[in-house]
Amino acid sequence: MTNIVYIAATNGMDKNFSVGIESWKNYCNRIGSRLIVSTNNLPENNDMEGNGSWQPWISNNLKNENFDRVLIADIDMVVRETAPNIFDSYPDTIFGAVKDVSGIN
Questions:
Q1: pLDDT tens figures, 7-19
Q2: 62 within 8 A of 79, measured Cβ to Cβ
Q3: Which of 3, 51, 73, 94 could form a disulfide with 33 if both were Cys (CB 3.0 to 4.6 A apart)?
Q4: What are phi and psi of 72, to 5 degrees?
């Protein structure tokens, strides 16, 4: 099995944030993880007004994958070339999340 980094890049966002996606490609290649960049807006995502950030939670992309762990990254993130392997930094029994500052409580 493998580790996956998943980025939702719907509504043409992959074109607007290509620098970040490229940084994740390089990172995943270096640490031996698989990168999934989902560019298709799912029909069931219409309830979320096409907001791609919801996509990982409703997508069948991840349900059909055989993986050990998954990191869901926002499209506007850039990872440093020297960043350590995050999957090695935390035990596989840990769930981590960052509170969004968008006003959703």
A1: 888 767 777 778 8
A2: no
A3: 3
A4: -100, 115
Question: In the numeric block, which tokens belong to residue 39?
Answer: 């560019």
The pTM of the full predicted model, rounded to 2 decimals, is 0.75
Question: Any long-range contacts for 64-67 (C-beta under 8 Å, 24+ apart)?
Answer: 65/4, 65/36, 66/1, 66/2, 67/1, 67/2, 67/3, 67/4, 67/34
Tens digit of each residue's pLDDT (9 = 90 or more) over 25-79: 999 999 999 998 887 766 554 555 555 555 655 556 666 677 888 888 888 889 9
